[in-house]
Design a protein that fits this description.
The protein is of the alpha+beta class and 187 residues long. Helix content is 38%, strand content 12%. Helix 1 (21-38) runs antiparallel to helix 5. It is elongated, with a radius of gyration of 21 Å. It starts with 20 loop residues before the first helix and ends in a 21-residue tail after the last helix. Residues 165-187 are annotated as: Disordered.
Amino acid sequence: MTTLNEDAPAAPGAGSHYLTPAAARRAIALAAPMIEHAMRDRSVVGSGFLHVVVMDPARAPGTASFEEAILHEHAFGDRAAWDADYAAFARAKARLSWTTGRDGRVVQQQFPHLLRTGDTLLAGGVCLDGIVVAASGAFPCYDEVFAGTVALCLRALAREAREAERETLRLAPRPPEPEPPSLLRPR
């Protein structure tokens, strides 16, 4: 039977076949025009900066450390001019969504019993079909918009890659089924 990455079998704990660091960079590049335009509007991105964290959907809690599960990070704006550590905020938001499998705002509003000491109380992390992305630097509802847009782009890129690969993946012929033992034959 043909499997994903047939030439190089995935090691235990390996990441997503379709969502790679290159795919994360492409998803952010697809969302970048919207983000860069919004960054000029201080009613959307008050700081003028944004940091995005993308998690590997195949590296779940318990199979990898949080740091190992970070697929890619990207900063918009001059980091030397940051007035706060937006990367740390975005990582904290990503960690909450990664560990709970839910949007951070949803956890805080509907599932506060899942919050642990040290968890962030900032919204801006999303979990879309297991794809976790977090953003920090904009106002919370816009952090969610930017993170959600990147997550949607990632989902589309994974679907696109799967479709492109579909023609090269074939099922192996089914082995013949063993003949059931006959009730009439002596044993």
